[in-house]
Amino acid sequence: MIKNIRALQEEFVPKEVVHRDNEIHVLAENLRPTIENGKGIDSLLHGPPGTGKTCVSRHLLEKLGQENPDVRFHYINCWKNYSRFKILYEALRGIGKTLNVHRQSTPTDKLYSVLEENVERPYVLILDEFDQIDEEEALYDLYSLPNVTMILIANHASALHSLEDRIRSRLMSCERIEFKKYSPDQLEDILKKRAEVGLEEEVDDSILRKIALSSEGDARIAISILRSSAIKARNKGKKITKEIVNDCIPEAKKEKKQKDVEKLNSHQKELYRIINDAGEIKPRDLYEKYGERVENPKSERSLRKYLKKMVHYNLIESEGEGRWRKYRSVES
């Protein structure tokens, strides 16, 4: 039943990306100067989760690398790498220059110096979920390097507006490329392509349609349902049926939510626990409880940014503005 499980993972980068022609064209034009050993135009890819932002970036950079092997590129997950040190370390790792860097003793400014000395050719960095970065100085560092081009990825274009003034004034020149939610028809096409590569047998169009309609425009959920259905069908020794898909839809959505919770940083997880325990809570009470539970608490500005991110991922809900705002837990 399954011939290539990788093709059924959300991280898989297909050879052909469908229904993102315009987005690919604009990003390719922004990166075109790197082919001629120049600096490209920094780009901000924004849109809801599961709309292909990361997939398009990685797909395009793989093609770019084939066109000009001198262009280097590296993907940085800012959920995991949210400090200035970690961002710069990852940038160095992408060019193989971490041999003499010691995580415990090397000063962060030293990392920047090493990076500055060694980026002599075009270097494209994908900063996925860049608004997770705690120390925004890292963005200023990368912007300052003449051969570095950044692809910033976030859920909303407004992520730029929440940056510190000095950094925002520079990054506001980024070209914004919007990724809208997929339609059911588009998701069906995406699933069909994945099934062709990942499965031995053809999946009935009505099955793919059912998965697409249940995925709320999110390709990650759609691919997860297809993968879970394929595994369950294989274990039962039968084809994928609508009954199997029905069983897998809530499982896939629960799995997605669990993955999103697991990748929260420690401060976000504490906020998430407090909101879940309370059911509903005002910001003032939330910040107070958070401050009692953690050492070295973050500023309210950082907490607001964390909470906004969690709302985008539907981990919590927000209602009202200012003093009337409330945060609520979201039922699974």
Report on the architecture of this protein:
Helix 3 runs parallel beside helix 4. 38% of the residues are buried. The chain is α/β, with parallel strands linked by helices and 332 residues long. It has 13 helices and eight strands. It is globular, with a radius of gyration of 21 Å. It has three domains: 159 residues, 3-Layer(aba) Sandwich (Rossmann fold); 73 residues, Helicase, Ruva Protein, domain 3, CATH 1.10.8.60; 66 residues, Orthogonal Bundle (Arc Repressor Mutant, subunit A). A five-stranded parallel beta sheet has the order 2-3-4-1-5, sandwiched between helices. Strands 6-8-7 form a three-stranded antiparallel beta sheet. The mean pLDDT is 94. Helices cover 50% and strands 11% of the residues.
List strands and helices in order, with pairings.
Elements: H1 21-35, E1 43-46, H2 53-67, E2 72-77, H3 84-93, H4 108-118, E3 123-128, H5 137-144, E4 148-154, H6 165-171, E5 175-178, H7 184-198, H8 205-213, H9 219-236, H10 242-262, H11 266-278, E6 280-281, H12 283-293, H13 300-312, E7 316-319, E8 326-329
Parallel strand pairs: 1-4, 1-5, 2-3, 3-4
Antiparallel strand pairs: 6-8, 7-8
